[in-house]
Amino acid sequence: MNAVEVHAVVEGPDDAPVLLLSNSLGADLGMWDPQLPALAEHFRVVRYDTRGHGRSPAPDGDSTLDDLADDVIALLDRLGVAQAHVAGLSIGGMTALRLAVRDPQRVASLAVLCSSAHPGNEQSWQDRATTVRAEGTGAIADAVISRWLTPAYAAAHPDVVARLRATFAAHSDEGYASCCAVLVGMDQRADLGRITAPTLVVSGAEDLALPPEHQQVIADGIPGARLLSLSPAAHLANIEQEQQVTDALIAHATEGLS
């Protein structure tokens, strides 16, 4: 195991089922703020900063998908959590998929938002990592964040855009570049059929970062998976469609609970 001790915040009743939330590449645990009040009424909510993001330490060199999964297992072990409902967006969803394949006993249910089993565009991720290591996260912040929200939503909510940009630019350059390496060559498509956890896949209809066809592949590959398409919504669908995502996460994770 090559885990780092990621920063985490735990909220909600101690005796409630655990719901773990994993953030997007370039965001931090604060991206889930819109969902938190309602989720914390039903779950013991564990939010964490992906390695190299927010207050989590940045590793030396490139990370792998298994490294990210190791971080989650180490966090759950640290908190004494045997099993959790797991929800992740973008790279958080990729991490969640890997957990569901590799450590199925730890995943009670799975929610994968605006993510991909095979991002592709390997050279673009390599180039992004090279740029960030040379010039810093601020050099690409505007270009990346322009794809996180639909233009109409961004124009109507400049405060949200400013907050997301500030978070992005504050990340460790090495930490962000290290996580870019996770996407280079990543292909989980052949493993999707092995996932047994009840799965919800959420797609942003206007997502330019990971378009809807990526989520369709995930939904088609996981037995019994359900696909929810949201519009208008770009990459951070949980922000743009706050209530729909919140309701969907609660409904999905509470199915079968008495």
Low-confidence stretches: none
CATH superfamily: Alpha/Beta hydrolase fold, catalytic domain
**SSE series:** EEHEHEHEHHHHHEHEHH
Mind telling me the C-alpha Rg?
17 Å
Distance between the termini: 36 Å
* Biggest pleated-sheet summary: 7 strands, mixed
What amount of the residues lies in strands? 5-15%
Question: Could you say how many structural domains there are in total?
Answer: 1
The structure class reads alpha/beta
Specify the CATH architecture: 3-Layer(aba) Sandwich
User: How many beta-strand segments?
Assistant: 7
What is the highest CATH level, the class? Alpha Beta
Shape: globular
Largest beta sheet: strand ordering: 1-3-2-4-5-6-7
Helix content: 40-55%
How would you state the average pLDDT, rounded? 96
* CATH third-tier fold name: Rossmann fold
How many helix segments?
11
How would you characterize this protein structure?
There is one protein chain. With 258 residues, the protein is an alpha/beta fold. The chain has one domain (8-254): Alpha/Beta hydrolase fold, catalytic domain (Rossmann fold, 3-Layer(aba) Sandwich), CATH 3.40.50.1820. Helices cover 43% and strands 15% of the residues. The protein contains 11 helices and 7 strands. The chain has helices at 36-42, 65-79, 91-102, 122-135, 141-145, 151-156, 158-170, 173-183, 212-221, 237-240, 242-254, and strands spanning 8-11, 18-22, 44-48, 84-89, 107-113, 199-204, 226-230. A 7-stranded mixed beta sheet has the order 1-3-2-4-5-6-7, with helices on both faces. Helix 1 (36-42) links the parallel strand 2 (18-22) and strand 3 (44-48). Helix 1 (36-42) packs parallel to helix 11 (242-254), helix 2 packs across helix 3 and helix 4 (122-135) packs antiparallel against helix 8. The longest helix is centred in the first third of the chain and has 15 residues, at 65-79. The model has no long low-confidence stretch (mean pLDDT 96).
